[in-house]
């Protein structure tokens, strides 16, 4: 009669050990670290004018994973993308001021920093309350590097699921393809 | 002499008038950009008209042209003035299959 109890105990122990080795159980922004020094050490690969919000969005990729990226292929595990917003310069009527090429002019410091990170197996631990996004997860940080408590990353999942054919990215998959041409 | 200079000025102005900036209309009915390919000149404007029954958008991922004009509700219009030459893609933010290729020539 004791054997099954011992077996159950050992089984539970093995399960716990396995879960510990598998990494954090908590999915969500808490498992994404603030990207220190991204502005100086990461690759700035695109700049998107968001006219309706009067923001200029700077898009960076972590260089180590970027070096492994291949055109037409999903981004490698370990890829981290940053979308960092700055306000756009506006005129007296609050309309964005454009340069000679028609581009918005950023001014001031970053106002928000959004991160999407891809790690093997992360997709298995996100909840059913968000749309499937492969192994990507999302976080929104304030400029001081703390998580923005007002951001619900379910919105990130919902928006990025519109790019299933581009590995859930709006700019990076296309950028890797374009620069190979 | 004065008349000769005036005529010369007129001759020079004729081609300039022929290349005046145009507005190109792109529609979105049935979740398709129409036309799907557009060639325009620097200075021209593209007017995106959402003549569909659902939300659409204008998102450009191409480097040096990248922009997002935001959600465009049915019957709303957005305009984009082309100020430099080059080629870029336009994608609907909501519908991955909606693609427009734009070539801007000097």
Automatic annotation (TrEMBL), chain A:
Gene3D superfamilies on file: Cytochrome P460 (3.50.70.20)
Domain of life: Bacteria
Alphabetized InterPro entries for the sequence: Cytochrome_P460 (IPR032033), Cytochrome_P460_sp (IPR038142)
Pfam families assigned: Cytochrome_P460 (PF16694)
Domain Cytochrome P460: 35-171
Protein name: Cytochrome P460 domain-containing protein
Automatic annotation (TrEMBL), chain B:
Signal peptide as annotated in the record: 1-20
Main localisation: periplasm
Domain EfeO-type cupredoxin-like span(s) in chain numbering: 6-97
Source taxon at top rank: Bacteria
Protein name (database record): EfeO-type cupredoxin-like domain-containing protein
Cellular compartments annotated: Periplasm
Keyword line: Electron transport, Periplasm, Signal, Transport
